[in-house]
Write a structure and sequence with these properties.
By secondary structure, this protein is an alpha+beta fold. 30% of the residues lie in helices and 21% in strands. The protein contains 14 helices and 19 strands. The strands form four sheets. The chain has a seven-stranded antiparallel β-sheet, with helices on both faces. Strands 8-9-10-11 form a four-stranded mixed β-sheet, covered by helices on one side. It is globular and about 70 Å long. The protein starts with 9 loop residues before the first helix and ends in an 8-residue tail after the last helix.
């Protein structure tokens, strides 16, 4: 704990903690404002954080995804150990996109920068964001190993005393279908680190701090104690759940065993299906990030996320299971199953916290990487690569309906129609909520959406599909009904499209994808008549769908 005899009273430490949270939020906004790619600038697919000398995360920006934030918390510890602090100089920035060290797949770049005050390293800033294309087969599940999926950069120095590694930048650009966007996004990441380091040092000067140790100890110990107090409210024991997911070649079973004790929560994935031959495998760091996020949503949610509040949660899984994929497994679409882990662990928590845990939701975001077909460049067409992100409905809660078309658990906002059409030769003809897609219940599941996309010019494009809930719907809770499954098709073609494949859409064809709905909560017959009437009037439920609330098959 901090030495209060040096004038660092609890009140003063709390003020400094609040200032640190403001610093890191400005750091995150710097990245968003400076980024080139829509998935960063518009969707917020980032993380930003401040760390102490030991590599412990002290604060994170509110904007960001659990898959970036919680993996960053561990990655900085690894990078800090990899590079001797005595060799660091002002202006140095280190980076990697190694999926097992950073954020689970190659498209996420993670940077770490030492912050200097009076010639000494006093802490670190770090950030992560998604780069739209790194070559190889690109974003999609079709790779057979990590080498198919793009350019892997081991931990290295991106910036040396303020000078960018020009050769490394040229290699990244040479291996991308969107070199300008990649270059811009890398400079945005650099600006994010620099802003965080500068503001951190300014804060220390303002408060007369020579080092961060007293504040760091206070933040981490206060957060750890608060989290353990929240865990103490749970009944000790072991809770199990199994979640069936679509998988690639076949349906898969995700197993979770949650053990609650006075020391904390331990989650284990023993029993989970083995790895896929395709790129939906999940490194353990990413599965851990989303699993712990789900637990923290209900256990001490008002406690800031940092090394202290994360410490009481541990996660393990048998090497080789699909939630602990080992090198060189393909992992490009690791979010497909990684983002299903919150539903998996919440199913355990529902047994320890009855009446408090929401139903299952769509969970996996409907991430649709698009790019030009190979023959386009040969024929003088317009090359492009863009990533559309859309979401389904969340599960209903014990006291309210689920949220429609909402980014949970990813936090990645849906792509904006106008921005997408401005940066890529596609037209989004339709984007609307899907009536009846939310599971019926006393509280209705959130609705999915229907989106239609065509080429804006006379050239084909490719879609790299890897989405969930096409075969296995989000389950309701406590008597609620399941939500609607997702559906993908091309207008005029007879058969629906599988949830995971590479798809070519020719000029004049219209891609139609419907995102899943969330499960309902409580028996449908318990829904208030006025709530059902409002849904009918708004077109969220059709007359046929309303029959389910009266216990009649439509």
């Amino acid at each position: 704990m901090a030495d209060l005899s040096q004038g660092l009273s609890p009140a003063r430490l709390q003020v400094m903690w609040n200032r640190l949270l403001a610093v890191v939020e400005e750091q995150g906004q710097t990245l968003i404002r400076a980024a080139f790619s829509p998935i960063v600038r518009e969707c917020g697919d980032i993380s930003a954080g401040i760390f102490d000398l030991r590599g412990r995360m002290l604060a994170q920006a509110v904007t960001g995804t659990p898959g970036h934030i919680n993996t960053m918390a561990e990655a900085v510890t690894s990078l800090r150990a990899r590079f001797p602090m005595q060799d660091m100089r002002p202006g140095d920035i280190y980076m990697t996109n190694d999926p097992w060290l950073a954020s689970g797949h190659l498209n996420d770049f993670l940077l770490m920068m030492p912050a200097f005050k009076d010639g000494r390293v006093v802490g670190f800033t770090s950030c992560t964001s998604h780069l739209v294309d790194l070559g190889g087969l690109g974003m999609g599940p079709e790779g057979s190993d990590i080498y198919d999926e793009g350019l892997l950069i081991p931990p290295c120095k991106l910036v040396d005393r303020g000078v960018v590694n020009a050769l490394l930048l040229e290699i990244v650009k040479a291996n991308s279908r969107e070199p300008i966007a990649n270059e811009g996004d890398i400079y945005a990441l650099i600006a994010c680190c620099e802003a965080g380091a500068a503001r951190l040092v300014t804060m220390m000067v303002d408060f007369g701090l020579e080092d961060l140790d007293p504040l760091a100890d206070y933040i981490i110990e206060t957060s750890r104690r608060g989290t353990l107090d929240a865990i103490a409210d749970l009944a000790p024991g072991t809770y199990r759940n199994v979640l069936r997911v679509d998988g690639y070649e076949r349906d898969l079973d995700l197993h979770a065993t949650l053990t609650v004790s006075a020391k904390g929560l331990h989650l284990d994935f023993t029993g989970t299906s083995g790895c896929s031959a395709k790129g939906i495998n999940v490194p353990l760091n990413y599965a851990t990030a989303y699993s712990v996020f789900a637990l923290r949503c209900l256990i001490g949610p008002d406690i800031p996320n940092n090394a202290g509040s994360l410490d009481p949660f541990t996660v393990t899984g048998p090497p080789g299971c699909i939630l602990n994929a080992e090198r060189p497994a393909p992992v490009a679409m690791r979010h497909t199953l990684g983002q299903m882990t919150p539903d998996l662990v919440l199913g355990c928590l529902a047994q320890a916290m009855p009446g408090q845990v929401p139903a299952e939701g769509a969970s996996c975001m409907y991430d649709l990487p698009l790019r030009h077909a190979p023959d386009v460049a040969r024929q003088g067409g317009r090359p492009f690569a863009v990533e559309l992100v859309h979401n389904g409905g969340t599960g209903a809660r014990a006291m309210s309906d689920g949220l429609s078309a909402t980014a949970f658990p990813s936090g990645v906002f849906g792509s904006q129609v106008e921005i997408t059409e401005a940066v890529a030769p596609v037209i989004l003809w339709r984007r609307e909520l899907r009536p009846d897609s939310g599971g019926a219940g006393t509280y209705r599941g959130g609705l999915g959406q229907r989106i239609e996309v065509t080429s804006a010019i006379e050239q084909p494009f490719l879609v790299f599909l890897s989405v969930e809930r096409v075969r296995n719907a989000a389950r309701g809770r406590d008597g609620g009904l399941p939500g609607a499954t997702g559906r993908i098709r091309v207008a005029g073609r007879e058969a629906d499209i599988p949830g995971k494949c590479e798809l070519r859409v020719d000029p004049g064809e219209r891609l139609i994808f419907e995102t899943p709905g969330g499960g309902g909560y409580g028996p449908p017959q318990g829904r208030a008549s006025e709530a059902l009437a409002r849904d009918l009037a708004a077109g969220l439920v059709t007359p046929a769908g309303a029959a389910l609330y009266r216990g009649v098959s439509p």
